[in-house]
């Protein structure tokens, strides 16, 4: 079974300013490592643009229109203190969501498509139904989950998020729907201030806050003792991964102490659940990661495991 890689040059063209951590070099570093000989077996596809109808599965239509209308013809515009857009940002955001939607279509309908990795930016997991924040415009994985249900009749969709920041946007969209599952391991207390263990939705939300300085032992225990059993009990029809690598010990924006082998391990564990529950259907999308070397090495570990499924 093939691993699909979705990306688009528009995602590199999204500029946020010279000193902004969510820079084009992040995606360049990821694509450079995925161009290596170890990744010759990847099936590479151009990410299409998401449609307004697809975006509106997760976001309010008036919000979609407002974001796209806010894209400047020149220069930069702040949608909030952290979230910056420039002339190519609208196309990048549409391609980022489109990558996840296309990946869902492929792994559901194509016999030889096993799983997919979407190398895209801007990231998505902080975007709420009608609010951009934390570098995110549209919620890539949430749109993908709603599309899996609306377009393919997959009733139960799950998202597992190992970004160092809690995915408040995904939780916000999922928390009232028992057929959607969201689980997150993240540093706490930390931005965006959500993700307490007491936030459980309708029994479909599982948060595993990790104290600053936590490393492999605490990270793996959070999954073995909580998230993975809850995910198996939910029994999803499709699994999405918010693949943020900013929990790495080298990352400058946070204080977890993860290493590449932790990302290799959690990818294997999620693949095992997907094999048991949903015929191996996994769509992974890039979220955070701001040390370029750590981001490249961690993505390499993650995608190699996807390819070996």
Helicity, as a percent range: 25-40%
Give me the secondary-structure category: alpha/beta
* Beta-strand residue percentage: 15-25%
Envelope shape: globular
Q: What name does the CATH topology carry?
A: Arginase, Chain A
**Rounded average pLDDT:** 98
CATH superfamily: Histone deacetylase domain
Largest sheet: 8 strands, parallel
List the strand order in the largest sheet: 2-1-5-10-9-6-7-8
N/C terminus separation: 8 Å
Rg, alpha carbons: 17 Å
CATH architecture descriptor: 3-Layer(aba) Sandwich
Secondary-structure element pattern, one letter each: EHHEHHEEHEHEHEEHEHEH
Number of discrete helical segments: 10
Low-confidence stretches: none
Q: How many separate domains make up the residues?
A: 1
CATH class annotation: Alpha Beta
Secondary-structure blueprint:
Blueprint: E1 2-7, H1 10-13, H2 24-34, E2 43-46, H3 52-55, H4 61-69, E3 77-78, E4 84-85, H5 89-109, E5 113-118, H6 140-152, E6 157-161, H7 168-174, E7 180-187, E8 205-210, H8 216-234, E9 238-243, H9 260-277, E10 282-286, H10 292-307
Parallel strand pairs: 1-2, 1-5, 5-10, 6-7, 6-9, 7-8, 9-10
Antiparallel strand pairs: 3-4
Could you walk me through the main structural features you see in this protein, from its secondary elements to its overall organization?
There is one protein chain. The chain has 309 residues and is an alpha/beta fold. It has one domain (2-307): Histone deacetylase domain (Arginase, Chain A), CATH 3.40.800. Helices cover 39% and strands 16% of the residues. The chain has helices spanning 10-13, 24-34, 52-55, 61-69, 89-109, 140-152, 168-174, 216-234, 260-277, 292-307, and strands at 2-7, 43-46, 77-78, 84-85, 113-118, 157-161, 180-187, 205-210, 238-243, 282-286. The strands form two sheets. An eight-stranded parallel sheet has the order 2-1-5-10-9-6-7-8, with helices on both faces. The longest helix is centred in the N-terminal third of the chain and has 21 residues, at 89-109. It is globular, with a radius of gyration of 17 Å. The N and C termini lie close together (8 Å).
């Amino acid at each position: 079974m093939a691993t699909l890689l979705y990306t688009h040059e528009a995602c590199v063209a999204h500029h946020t300013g010279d000193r902004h951590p969510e820079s084009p070099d992040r995606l360049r570093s990821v694509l450079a490592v995925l161009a290596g000989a170890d990744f010759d077996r990847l099936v590479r596809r151009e990410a299409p643009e998401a449609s307004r109808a697809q975006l509106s599965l997760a976001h309010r239509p008036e919000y979609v229109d407002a974001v796209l209308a806010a894209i400047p013809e020149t220069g930069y515009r702040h949608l909030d203190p952290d979230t910056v857009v420039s002339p190519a940002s609208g196309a990048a955001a549409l391609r980022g969501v489109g990558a996840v939607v296309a990946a869902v279509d492929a792994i559901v309908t194509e016999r030889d498509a096993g799983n997919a990795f979407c190398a895209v930016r801007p990231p998505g997991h902080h975007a709420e139904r009608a609010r951009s924040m934390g570098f995110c415009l549209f919620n890539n994985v949430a749109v993908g989950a709603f599309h899996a249900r609306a377009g393919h009749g997959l009733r139960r969709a799950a998202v597992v998020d190992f970004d160092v920041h809690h995915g408040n946007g995904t939780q916000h969209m999922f928390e009232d729907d028992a057929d959607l599952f969201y689980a997150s391991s993240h540093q706490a207390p930390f931005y965006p201030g959500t993700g307490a263990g007491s936030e459980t939705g309708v029994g479909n939300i599982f948060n595993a806050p990790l104290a600053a300085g936590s490393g492999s032992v605490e990270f793996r225990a959070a999954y073995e003792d909580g998230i993975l059993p809850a995910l198996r009990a939910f029994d999803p029809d499709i699994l999405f991964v918010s693949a943020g690598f900013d929990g790495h010990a080298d990352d400058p924006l946070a204080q977890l102490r993860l290493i590449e082998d932790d990302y290799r391990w959690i990818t294997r564990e999620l693949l095992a659940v997907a094999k048991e529950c949903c015929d191996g259907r996994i769509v992974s999308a890039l979220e955070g990661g701001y040390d370029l070397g750590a981001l490249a090495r961690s993505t390499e570990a993650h995608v190699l495991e996807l390819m070996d499924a």
